[in-house]
């Protein structure tokens, strides 16, 4: 699966130059009939992201998608952006606004995969194709790009077991899953359970409302109270934001030096990995995912086939055989910070090792 996903991602990136050329050609031609083709590079792309608490959306996804859309359309396309701030009703209104404003294609990262289905249908009824981004929205989706989410959960679970070693036999872990409204969270959970079940006792498990760190903090306080602080040997956290809330609760209870997982390679998460407060994160290279979304969106807006971009097919509860691009992930620990987020230009050493983190960086040779 990993090798196939690498090939898919590479194929999507390789196709971008061809997409650029073909977009230019269609823009140079006069209207020969087809409305999508006649638009050429002068298209309007609606981009709807789910929230702004997780650093990735504003810092990486939005600018990367905007940049790629511009590249593919000779700087002629317009990207219309809205952030739902974790409000599913607001996101539905944002889709309605995009439809009213007659965008040519939508890229949607759903707050709630089920609640968005009616809005996706409205867009389709208006002749606007929809690309599901990062989370597989329900409804008549035309294309999808994300990471192999079950593999994300497996990666987290495997890392936690490695960190626990023999302690996995004696103690208990707490599982802090993501929001029940996010289909990705269910897949992360599935992957983690496939690795952890039977190998370690799960003392408490939570689906964390809205992925909020403060909710994870409250849940962790409840788990510590119920299980006893001496019984907990590790924590599965589905992302870095929640890991921060969890670690705050652990520290308040006098619990330290137990492994906590994460995901998204947020700067704060990477810094906690440097200090040893957090054991790992899942690094998801955002550029290939963003590039794939932009390539599929531009192709759909211009009435072109996705065959050369999307090499995989994915089923949602409402739509079968959705053309998809799945991007591989990496387990990020102290050992490979240089080879992942620094090498890819996500962060600099100066950013990670600023202020109070410099001594910890020096200690692990991150200079």
Distance between the termini: 35 Å
Largest sheet: 7 strands, mixed
How do the SSEs run, as a string of H and E?
Answer: HHEHEHEHEEHEHEHEHHEHEEEHHH
- Classify the secondary structure makeup into a structural class: alpha/beta
| Multimerization state | single chain
**Helical stretch count?**
14
Q: Percent of residues in beta strands?
A: 15-25%
Biggest β-sheet: strands ordered side by side in the sheet: 2-1-3-4-5-11-10
Shape: globular
If you compute it from the alpha carbons, what radius of gyration comes out, rounded to the nearest whole angstrom? Answer: 21 Å
Overall number of strands: 12
Q: What percent of residues adopt helix (DSSP H or I)?
A: 40-55%
* Low-confidence blocks of residues: 1-37
The average pLDDT is 90
Q: What report would you give on this structure?
A:
The protein has helices at residues 2-28, 35-39, 56-72, 88-100, 117-125, 149-164, 183-196, 213-227, 240-252, 267-275, 286-301, 338-342, 349-352, 358-363, and strands at residues 44-49, 78-83, 105-108, 130-133, 143-147, 172-177, 201-207, 232-237, 281-283, 312-314, 322-327, 330-332. The protein has 367 residues and is α/β, with parallel strands linked by helices. The strands form three sheets. It has a seven-stranded mixed β-sheet with strand order 2-1-3-4-5-11-10, with helices on both faces. Helix 3 (56-72) packs across helix 11 and helix 4 packs parallel to helix 5. The protein starts with a helix and ends with a helix. Mean pLDDT is 90; it is low at 1-37.
